[in-house]
Every structure is written in structure tokens, then in C-alpha cells.
Amino acid sequence: xxxxxxxxxxxxxxxxxxxxxxxxxxxxxxxxxxxxxxxxxxxxxxxxxxxxxxxxxxxxxxxxxxxxxxxxxxxxxxxxxxxxxxxxxxxxxxxxxxxxxxxxxxxxxxxxxxxxxxxxxxxxxxxxxxxxxxxxxxxxxxxxxxxxxxxxxxxxxxxxxxxxxxxxxxxxxxxxxxxxxxxxxxxxxxxxxxxxxxxxxxxxxxxxxxxxxxxxxxxxxxxxxxxxxxxxxxxxxxxxxxxxxxxxxxxxxxxxxxxxxxxxxxxxxxxxxxxxxxxxxxxxxxxxxxxxxxxxxxxxxxxxxxxxxxxxxxxxxxxxxxxxxxxxx
Length: 329
Hints:
Blueprint: H1 13-19, H2 33-36, E1 41-43, H3 57-69, E2 74-77, H4 89-101, E3 107-111, H5 117-129, E4 134-137, H6 148-159, E5 166-170, H7 172-175, H8 181-187, E6 193-198, H9 203-212, E7 217-220, H10 226-231, E8 236-238, H11 245-256, H12 262-275, H13 283-294, H14 310-328
Parallel strand pairs: 1-8, 2-3, 3-4, 4-5, 5-6, 6-7
């Protein structure tokens, strides 16, 4: 079936209503806007490429409108799901500019980390100059387990020159570099230290982050810690936000309204189970599914990741039909 690009610029009423929901700490509690200020949801969005593996700015612009319509509070640009290591500095600037031009009022967090300080600073200044709300910054990778003092110096060189909020990216199984409590303490004098994205996913480690730094936004980057994040009044940055945006947004809307969010979270987990046979956690299948959900031409990932297979396509189409039935029931 041929797909045609859709735009969503005129279809944002539902998202606006969700964003305006009253907020409270527990079911039945009075609204507490300050307590719920950090309870926001950022999809870690993928980066679309055409068949020639060139960045597709038109589809990316449509993606921003789609995620807004689906209820996302913000967007993380060029994170791990966005394949940031697969794009050059010049390309990363282009990707960021397209996202920021089509922000539609969402909080735009740009991942600007690289293995070296000059390019990290260059990308960070570029994002700040083009209107980014905040930054996400992976530590300098390749040299595994550098000393805390060295990481403090590295990050300080950015904090000294970039004044928008900065979040540190904790994904040591990929980066080989941990964001530790000691590192956060060493940077806590910077007023624009905003928090972290914890993609390590260890429950006790996440609890330690949230309990030690309750004034920062210790966002979970994994679904298994979402309940812990919500119960600590923290946010989340999730790759599942690409294909389950509205369902996850409903979880956050319930939490901010002071309702029991667990029924909405159960729907998220049910939908993921439905889609898992299609390989939804791999880049090719994830992007193929999102293209069907948005109604755009298929878009692609860069090597070393593989294309979606015919068997996965069939499973994804079947899963999307079941998920539609589930969400409209």
C-alpha cells in the first residue's frame, strides 16, 4: 500500500488539552504545579534517512508535528535512538536546526556530546544559539572509566561557556563512562546543571540518583524504572516514545492530574508485547513501524544497523492493527 506524508500542524487540540490537565501528587490531591513540573515525557526520537541514507528533513519536520499531536512534552534530538554517532558534526547541526525550527512549543533537548571537547562545545553552542531548551551530553567516550576529576574538568569546560540547562547522559554499557554521584556533586555548583538521563536501568542506582538529587530532574531512560521516576516526580526520556507516544503521554497525564497512572502504564506494556514480535527495539523495524503510524514513506537507518525484513514488516502490520483495536476499545 502506497503511503503519503501527512502533516499534523492543525491537529494539536488533544495535546493541548493533555498539557493543561490539573496536576496533583496523588489521586484526589489538590493541584501542585511545582511538584509536577519535572513530570514530563520526552521521546528519544529516531532520525529518518532516505533510501540513499541521507538525512530526510521533510519527514523529520513531520515527525515533530506528529509527536506534538501525540502528546509529547519534549523531544530528545540525536540521542542513542537518534543514531548520533552515525552523523557528522555538519549533519548533526542540520538535524538540530530542523528540529528546532519545527518545535511547536515542545521542550527541545539536543544531545551534543562527542568524544572530544572542541566538537562537543561547538555543537552545544550551536544548539543554544538556535533555540534549544536544554542539552543532553554523553561523556567523552572511547577511553573507558576515566577519573572523576578528568570528567569534571571536561564538563566544566562546557558549563563555563554554555548557559542553557545541561543534562548528563548515563549509559555506561554503551559509552563505557559512568555518570557517578561524585561527578554530579562536583558539578552541582553550576546553576544550569539540570539533571541526567539514566539509561543504565539499574533500579537501586536510579533510586540513589533520585534520592541524592531531588532538586534535579533525574530522568529515567528505561521503561523498567518509569514507576520509580514518576513516584519521585521525575521525568522520562524513552525510545519507546517513537511507537507508543500517545500511550506513554497518557501515563504522564494521569500522574500530573493526580490519578492512578498504573492502568495507563499497563496499556503501554500490553502494546509493547503486541509489537515485540516485529523486532520493534531494532532501528529498522522501529522506523518502519513509525512510518506506518505517521503515514509517510518508509525511512531508514544507517549501518551498522540492518533493514527491516519482510517477516518483520508483516508482524509489525499485524501488531499495529491489534494495537489500534486495543487503543480504540
